[in-house]
Amino acid sequence: MPIELNTLDTGDGGTPLVVIHGLFGSADNWRSHIKAWQEGRRVVAVDLRNHGRSPHIQGMAYADMAADVLALLDRLALPRVHLLGHSMGGKVAITLARLAPERVASLIIGDIAPVAYGHDHDSVLAGLRRVAQGRPANRREADSLLAEHVAEKPVRLFLATNLVRGESEGEGLKLRLGLDEIEAGYESVMREPAGSAPFTGPTLVLRGNASHYVADEHLPALYEVMPEARLVTLDAGHWLHAEKPEAFREAIDTFIADVEANPG
Asked: Packing angle between helix 62-75 and helix 88-99, nearest 10 degrees?
């Protein structure tokens, strides 16, 4: 049964843009983009299950996560949206577009292909588990605990966006993640998106030239699932929306403007 997701919702204006974050992310990571986009349209950024302020629940299958987002669209009375997903959120978006294409005015995918991937987050999961067990008093202590398993400073800074102060005095920092549920569902996260039919609506796929997630070898599978996809390569890695925010937004703005100028 779908759960009620937490959102950042700007309200007002045209066909909304719905933003779905990736693994270990949240709607909060997209605030700078939301601020720019909300001047021209309504923006709704979601916290997926086990992330951000949304409930923790067993099950990370793409059909279930897409059902959560679809239930949100129903709750907000949004019949048709531009749907943007990054990484794991991109697979959620692809799943929703395949299962309910009538709800998707356009599909925008950030650096992910509709394929299965190998284990790629063992060190990150170990670092987050270390933080959860270590109960750091401050962010410096949290970073030291993460650094026992995660060498890359930018990755640690990203993961640290999940830290919040505990409710009781002296509790220290805790993770705003359903870590147990994510670990239990990790195999599902690594799988292909759900659904069998291709999504034939307007599609933009943005990839980073320094990322391995949308390699040339993945393109046949990508075009099989999204035959109308326009592929744009940015000079960036996997977190292309953080590394090249202006180029990322410009590509999306141009794409949506073209879709809305040429409906059908």
From this structure: 70
**This prediction's pTM:** 0.95
Supply the range of the domain harboring residue 156: 122-184
Alpha-carbon distance of 262 to 264, in angstroms, equals 7
pLDDT digits (tens, 9 = 90+) for 203-238: 999 999 999 999 999 999 999 999 999 999 999 999
Q: Are residues 133 and 108 in the same domain?
A: no
Tokens of 71: 């239930």
Residues identified as active-site = 87, 180, 238
Do residues 30 and 108 both lie within one domain? Answer: yes
Dig out the tokens for 63 from the structure: 């059909």
Q: Which two tokens stand for residue 8?
A: 């950042």
Tokens of 11: 């309200």
Tell me the pLDDT of the chain averaged across its residues. Answer: 94
Closest CA to 96 of 201, 230, 206: 201
- Helix/strand/coil for 196: coil
Check whether 12 has a pLDDT greater than 80.
yes
Does residue 163 fall inside a structural domain? Answer: yes
Number of domains in the chain: 2
Q: What was the pLDDT predicted at 119? A: 79
